[in-house]
Specification:
The chain has 504 residues and is mainly alpha-helical. Among the domains are: 106 residues, Tetratricopeptide repeat domain (Serine Threonine Protein Phosphatase 5, Tetratricopeptide repeat), CATH 1.25.40.10; 240 residues, 3-Layer(aba) Sandwich (Rossmann fold). 61% of the residues lie in helices and 5% in strands. A five-stranded parallel beta sheet has the order 2-3-1-4-5, with helices on both faces. Helix 13 runs antiparallel to helix 14.
């Protein structure tokens, strides 16, 4: 940039040079996690120079780090307007869209960045995040592996790849990916935390020792980081058989989150009560079968009850497409609201009755895009229990496999889990028990109202007698079991044995 301040100048004027130095300082502070200080430098710059691309881009990154995604979006859209070919801005803008739930816009924006920079590891890493958000795990795995092939090993693609592999039941491969990254020096808290979520015996690293070593070199001053450390440490202590220490760590990890989610828990309880009352009032009618239309198989149960284990078992059948927690219903609901030009919600119970036919069409369109040639598409999002009867009444060829589990085991597994979002009940034992009591009541009542399209199974039966459960699921969905051998299913039945005195 040539200064316009003094004739004959060959570099930026002092004021312009100072602006650049301020942006560089703000970026340095952002990378150190000092987001407020970085914002205090960058925000006045943008006010003085509304078309200052570097300042807008950096301020957008700061807001992304602060999880103020709407302000990040504003800055990054303005930056992209100034330079539509800047792949870094497009990538950051894509991330803002993703965090705001606009995954389709995120993908479109990232494809523009990919066209400009076709071998950039960070773009493929973000593409993996988008596909993982949509529960398109096969596509996400492909994108993460490409990211790792184009650049040095970094946390995001390794973590994303491991999470996808774990979701597909490939725990040993997930452990291998994490172990290789650890050996190459990627020793972050996030990767160690993911290791603690894998089945016992899959990880060869001494996670307790690794966490202790990490804590000795990394100060856990940030509240969120310290909280994640406590959850990881609790799980590692549990796996090591140090049960009293594990319980103490779990209590310390859950206590601050219980306070943080108190207001959200109150709203969640109100929704539960409304859903239970609505279910009690419905009739038993449901949509009849439509030939050639895929079956929507909702595998529902409380969090940590074994839905993914059952989905993995069912996926061993031919003609089954795993959907995991795919947001297919929520997307159809939002599109229906938007098409009707009324305020949008993602909850099916909020949709006016006259719009249900439109929702049905939107859902079937989304189902066709995902299911391919399969005859059964699974969905394990536990919140669908709120509207199971409504789904059965609106969508053709719906089936429900409803999962129950030993109360102490599922309570302990929930209490040992730090969720990415939601699950406001999960950090207080009384709230967990109330949630489980409500969910099991919903299961029983749903089966009573919809006996032709529901089956109740237990986690203990799934893991102890998978062949019987598989044959029952195949008959339920009109499929053949075939000759394919079943892979062993992980089981942590009895995981609460050393904690019953605390749980009760």
């Amino acid at each position: 940039m040539v200064s316009k301040g003094e004739p004959g100048s060959t570099g930026p004027s002092p004021s312009l040079r100072q602006s650049r130095e301020l942006v560089e300082e703000a970026e340095r502070l952002r990378r150190q996690g000092k987001f407020d200080r970085a914002e205090s430098i960058c925000y006045p710059l943008v006010r003085r120079h509304p078309k200052y691309l570097a300042a807008l881009h950096t301020l957008g990154l700061i807001y992304l780090d602060k999880r103020n995604f709407e302000r990040a979006l504003d800055c990054l859209i303005r930056a992209s307007m100034l330079d539509p070919t800047n792949w870094m801005t497009l990538s950051a803008l894509s991330l803002a869209y993703l965090r705001l739930g606009a995954s389709e816009m995120a993908a479109q924006t990232l494809n523009r960045a990919l066209a400009i920079r076709p071998q950039e590891a960070s773009i493929f890493s973000l593409l993996g995040e988008i596909h993982r958000e949509e529960r398109e795990y096969a596509l996400a795995i492909q994108a993460y592996r490409q990211a790792l092939s184009f650049g040095p090993t970094t946390e995001t693609p390794v973590a994303g790849l491991a999470l996808c592999l774990s979701a597909l039941g490939q725990s040993a491969e997930a452990a291998r990916v994490l172990g290789e990254a650890y050996d190459r020096g990627v020793r972050t808290l996030r990767l160690l935390h993911i290791m603690t979520t894998l089945p016992a015996g899959t990880v060869s690293i001494d996670i307790l020792e690794a966490l202790s070593r990490l804590a000795s070199v990394q100060t856990m001053t940030d509240a969120a980081t310290n909280n994640t450390y406590l959850f990881a440490n609790a799980a590692a202590l549990d796996a090591a058989g140090r049960y009293e220490e594990a319980w103490d760590a779990a209590v310390k990890a859950n206590r601050p989150l219980a306070a943080e989610y108190r207001a959200e828990l109150k709203a969640e309880i109100e929704r539960r009560e409304s859903s239970l009352a609505r279910l009690r009032a419905v009739s038993t009618a449901h949509q009849g079968p439509i030939p050639q239309q895929p079956i929507s198989l909702f595998i529902l149960g409380p969090s940590r009850s074994g839905k993914t284990t059952l989905e993995r078992l069912v996926s061993s059948l031919d003609h089954v497409k795993i959907g995991s927690e795919a947001p297919i219903v929520e997307k159809a609901v939002r599109r229906t609201f938007q098409t009707a030009a009324i305020p949008t919600s993602s909850r099916l119970e909020n949709l006016p009755a006259e719009l249900l036919p439109s929702f049905r069409d939107m859902y079937l369109e989304g189902l066709a895009q995902r299911v391919g040639t399969a005859r059964v598409f699974t969905n394990t999002l536990p919140g669908h229990i709120h509207n199971a009867a409504l789904l059965a009444n609106v969508i053709p060829n719906v089936r429900f496999l409803l999962v129950k589990r030993n109360l102490d085991d599922v309570t302990w597994r929930i209490y040992l889990t730090k969720y990415l979002s939601g699950n406001a009940y999960a950090y207080d034992l009384r709230a967990i028990l109330d949630y489980l009591e409500w969910y099991n009541t919903m299961i029983e009542l749903t089966a009573e109202k919809l006996p032709d399209v529901t089956r109740i199974v237990s986690y203990e039966a799934i893991t102890s007698d998978p062949a019987t459960i598989l044959h029952g699921a195949a008959e339920f969905c009109g499929l053949e079991v075939g000759e394919r051998p079943m892979s062993p299913l992980p089981s942590d039945h009895g995981c609460s044995a050393h904690y019953v005195q605390f749980l009760r």
